[in-house]
């Protein structure tokens, strides 16, 4: 049985250019054993954003890998289906497509929840013996 772990990273302007907000990315997400089955494995995690920009903020997420983008991989093994990500369980897209997780139109002086929902289908032909991972990168943008 393999254990899938989604690693989390953040990008944006250099720290000195972002004095007005604090972003805490959702924690790493486990999808459990990932044995083949007809239903996808699903999970979620929550991060937070707090900031004083009157124009608000956007938070987006996308898979970081440049080879086999959007697919969970381990060594030379690539899963058949792309990982799906989104802001809720009913709004998922392939992880190689930028997903809007949060779009505020004013400052967020209290911690605002930034959700990440994931879904991964495992087929009988997928080699899941080694475990898989993928890195999801978040971008926080202060709106003008």
Number of strands: 12
Name of the CATH superfamily: Fimbrial-type adhesion domain
Order of helix and strand elements from N to C terminus: EEEEEEEEEEEE
- Class based on secondary structure composition and strand pairing: mainly beta
Contiguous runs where pLDDT drops below 50 for at least 5 residues: 1-5, 9-17
Biggest sheet statistics? 5 strands, mixed
Architecture in CATH? Sandwich
> Kindly, what is the distance between the CA atoms of the first and last residues, rounded to a whole number of angstroms?
48 Å
Shape: elongated
Oligomer: single chain
Number of H/I helices: 0
Question: What's the number of structural domains?
Answer: 1
Share in β-strands: over 45%
CATH class: Mainly Beta
In the CATH hierarchy, the third-tier topology is known as: Immunoglobulin-like
Radius of gyration: 16 Å
Q: Give the strand order of the largest sheet, numbering strands 1, 2, ... along the chain.
A: 3-1-12-5-10
Averaged pLDDT? 82
Helix content: under 10%
List the helices and strands and how they pair.
Blueprint: E1 4-11, E2 21-24, E3 29-30, E4 41-51, E5 57-63, E6 73-74, E7 77-78, E8 84-86, E9 92-94, E10 99-103, E11 108-120, E12 132-142
Parallel strand pairs: 1-12
Antiparallel strand pairs: 1-3, 2-4, 4-11, 5-10, 5-12, 6-7, 8-9, 8-11
